[in-house]
């Protein structure tokens, strides 16, 4: 698409072979990290490969590639816990994972609205094309599910007031983000997408202070 035409592979600055060599190097380093973990985590990490491999194909198959991205991208919610504890406490990890998936649906749907005109031309799919003018209602629903899941995860691992304060702040941030979003202005979509770094910072601070 026009927005990504200058990226190295699309612009022809690197060859397909060079990109595969680079990918092989990244995967090799990732494998070295994975093998340093406990056996449970090694198995859990290996289980994510099916999602990693299939995600790039999803926008050719379904209008919900953002969901598959969420399932893939938030695997760390499971792996991080198991790497420390030796296994997953599903009463905490599962709602945290769901929260991450819902968050990905929010920010990546906003991201996808940047490219919707080009996506229609080249025939790829996205939640932006699926939701159209109903996008804000869907984003509101995903945000609510995210906040509820974060609360459940917090309750199941005895989080304290700073954590829930952070969750409330995240809710306010997302509400403002969705309310002011203009899905027909790519520059505004990028601005709102990038502002999701604030969500991550707020949650991290809430977790740290909540545990302290």
From TrEMBL:
PANTHER family: 4-HYDROXYBENZOATE POLYPRENYLTRANSFERASE, MITOCHONDRIAL, PRENYLTRANSFERASES. Belongs to the UbiA prenyltransferase family. It comes from the Eukaryota. Coiled coil: none annotated. NCBIfam families: ubiA_proteo (TIGR01474). GO terms for biological process: isoprenoid biosynthetic process; ubiquinone biosynthetic process. The chain crosses the membrane at residues 20-40, 61-83, 89-107, 138-155, 161-181, 193-210. One of its GO terms (molecular function) is prenyltransferase activity. Keywords: Isoprene biosynthesis, Membrane, Transferase, Transmembrane, Transmembrane helix. It is a multi-pass membrane protein. It holds the Pfam family UbiA. InterPro entries: HB_polyprenyltransferase-like, Prenyltransferase, UbiA_prenyltransferase, UbiA_sf. Its cofactor is Mg(2+). It is found in: Membrane. Its main location: membrane. GO terms for cellular component: mitochondrial inner membrane. It comes from Heliornis fulica (sungrebe). This is COQ2 protein.
């Amino acid at each position: 698409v026009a927005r990504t035409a200058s990226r190295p592979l699309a612009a022809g600055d690197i060859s397909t072979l060079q990109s595969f060599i680079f990918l092989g190097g990244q995967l090799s380093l990732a494998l070295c990290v994975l093998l340093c973990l406990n056996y449970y985590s090694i198995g859990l990490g290996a289980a994510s490969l099916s999602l990693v491999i299939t995600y790039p194909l999803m926008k050719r198959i379904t209008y919900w590639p953002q969901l598959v991205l969420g399932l893939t991208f938030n695997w760390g919610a499971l792996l991080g816990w198991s790497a420390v504890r030796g296994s997953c406490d599903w009463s905490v990890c599962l709602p945290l994972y769901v929260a991450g998936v819902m968050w990905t649906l929010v920010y990546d749907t906003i991201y996808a609205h940047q490219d919707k005109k080009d996506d229609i031309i080249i025939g790829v799919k996205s939640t932006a094309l699926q939701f159209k003018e109903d996008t804000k209602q869907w984003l509101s629903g995903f945000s609510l599910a995210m906040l509820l899941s974060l609360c459940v995860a917090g309750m199941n691992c005895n989080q304290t007031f700073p954590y829930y304060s952070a969750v409330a702040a995240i809710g306010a941030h997302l509400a403002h983000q969705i309310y002011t979003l203009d899905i027909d202005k790519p520059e505004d979509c990028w601005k709102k997408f990038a502002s999701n770094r604030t969500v991550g910072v707020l949650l991290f601070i809430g977790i740290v202070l909540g545990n302290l």
